[in-house]
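seq:
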Amino acid sequence: MGLPEKQYITPEQYLESERLALEKHEFYLGEIFAMSGASFRHNQIFKNTYGNLFNKLKGKPCQPYGSDLRIHIPNNSLYTYPDISIICGKPEMTDTVKDTITNPSVIIEILSKSTYDYDKGQKFTLYRDIDSLREYILIDSMSIRVEHYFKNEDSSWTLKDYRTIDAKLNIETISADLLLSDVYVDVFVDE
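struct:
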């Protein structure tokens, strides 16, 4: 007896069901993948980072959005929910429902044990198909570490690795600094 054949769905079927769903799901090449919940540390890092970015970008042409904003990458079919997206200029929507964008300039993912390999590997490979993407930032929730990738003129990517609480990350796309001491406020207090 063989394995059951996979059931593939269309992007339209995915969006129809996702817009009614109580949980979030990713879609890639005809398959749907449930997204897991987040730890307290993850939420604390999100709060610290998003709040900092919101204050820095108030009234400016680039704006941060949380993980409820779905992005779509037409070049490879991925629909996903980054932890934080920064959109510069007018958001480009996929359809008239206006709940899915295609033009983030900066994506920030908060790494956990369950997402670490995916966010650093395949997901980053898929994100690189976004023409508007200039910077990809990975914030570790298990230790003090931030990996900052930025796109060069020749479309190659360069990594800057930060591992100390007193480090300062410059997000060039939005002309703003992000202090790791602000990112990790109250994250490791119980240890």
